[in-house]
């Protein structure tokens, strides 16, 4: 059971981050509804009742926008993504996506600083310089070859670090599932992207589909989105659950990574089982 839930969350979490909306496919069946509490919603995707006590005061409007987003995705974005996948070889698509990841580095760098994580900021800055120059604007992840691995963060996570509440769940046109806090955070992050200032309004075509990855990200998760839709009884509920669950885990992981390492425990005083603390190098070299 746990394995199924983990797999489901993994798929849904990736798709939820696309920001693609979808229409509801109807509520739970009568049999399902009678088997659950009136205060719970049920989704076959996870095989468990979902606590309905979430902040979704705009659900009717959210569902309408969700349906509109799904139609735009089905009739506009998906055909373009399929044409892109057909015309551009896989190797080139992955290289192009690395370019967008690299262009997101300035936003990550600023948020690292705001989160009081200077080491992560230094690593992000170094990656951006190396990949922009040696890596040809990011076509090649040269920094990773030097041991500088990348990470993701955003202004929504920065706000969470300082105690800003997520606010209500909302679905925005084109952007898709988000919260009030993350929607504001996305606007700030967009202003930190180099392509915002070089491309202007064209950027919005790409950022509308999550983090400036544009159609490249939609291409990666096209099959997962289709599988999720087919597996869901109520796609709106499934996406809402997945987005909030995945986003919460993402924020917790990001904040944990920015916390200072705990100070090592003080060595025992002489006479408390040993005469002196063991040498650190000797401990590391011990078999």
Shape: globular
Major β-sheet strand ordering: 1-2
Order of helices and strands: HHEEHHHHHHEEHHHHHHH
Number of domains: 1
In whole angstroms, the N-to-C terminal distance is 39 Å
Give the low-confidence spans.
Answer: 1-52, 208-212, 262-266, 268-287
Percent range of helical residues: 55-70%
Q: Which sheet architecture does the biggest sheet show? A: 2 strands, antiparallel
Question: Would you kindly provide a written description of the structure presented here, covering whatever features stand out?
Answer:
- The chain is built from 15 helices and four strands.
- The protein has helices spanning 2-16, 30-34, 59-87, 90-103, 105-114, 118-133, 142-145, 155-161, 180-191, 194-199, 202-207, 215-220, 222-231, 235-258, 280-285; strands spanning 40-43, 48-51, 169-172, 176-179.
- Strands 1-2 form a two-stranded antiparallel ribbon. Strands 3-4 form a two-stranded antiparallel sheet.
- Strand 1 (40-43) and strand 2 (48-51) form a beta hairpin.
- The longest helix is centred in the first third of the chain and has 29 residues, at 59-87.
- The model is unreliable at 1-52, 208-212, 262-266 and 268-287 (pLDDT under 50).
